[in-house]
Amino acid sequence: MENQPPPPTYVSMVDPFLVEALQNPRHRLTILRMELDVQNFLKNSDIHQFEFPHFPTSYLRLAAHRVAQHYGLQTMVQDNVVDGQGIRILVIKNPESKVPAVCLSDVPAKDSENDHLNQIKFVIRPRPKASSNDDNGLGLKRSPVRTVEERKEEYDRARARIFSSPNSSDSEDALAPFEVADSVHDVCSVI
């Protein structure tokens, strides 16, 4: 039986819901923003009530309650049907409100398979440089700058090589089986 390392200290000090939410890349940033808002609220002794911004899902509203409770704050819900803002979450300071021993930002993000791929380093080796007297097998020397005529000639030779029949190397003979129709009537009569 293998000895497993003990669970991290934050596991017993942070709500499991918040740990799971923080390990989800989709929600981590939002939870950490909530925590930052709560920390700024606690630092300001002049303000005794704070309102979270509107959260579109019940999951994020639950997370806002849990973040406030992690800091020992009291939460209240106000349903504002009149002004159309929906549900608002108010946070109120208590005498026992304080910054906890383990902040939510201390909870590490869960490693995903993509993170492991991002850690792998790929080395791209440069292609060996051809010497100046090498040619590409067609009798042409490749230069980095070619004229349009040189490119067209190379294209024509490649086309002739691709479409040539085994017993003929001339490009006109290779295209002989394909006759060009003179009109639409000729094309339709072939079909």
From TrEMBL:
Keywords: Phosphoprotein. This is Single-stranded nucleic acid binding R3H protein. One of its GO terms (molecular function) is nucleic acid binding. Residues 28-96 form the R3H domain. Signal peptide: none annotated. Residues 98-167 form the SUZ domain. The keyword Metal-binding does not apply. It comes from the Eukaryota. Residues 128-153 are annotated as: Disordered.
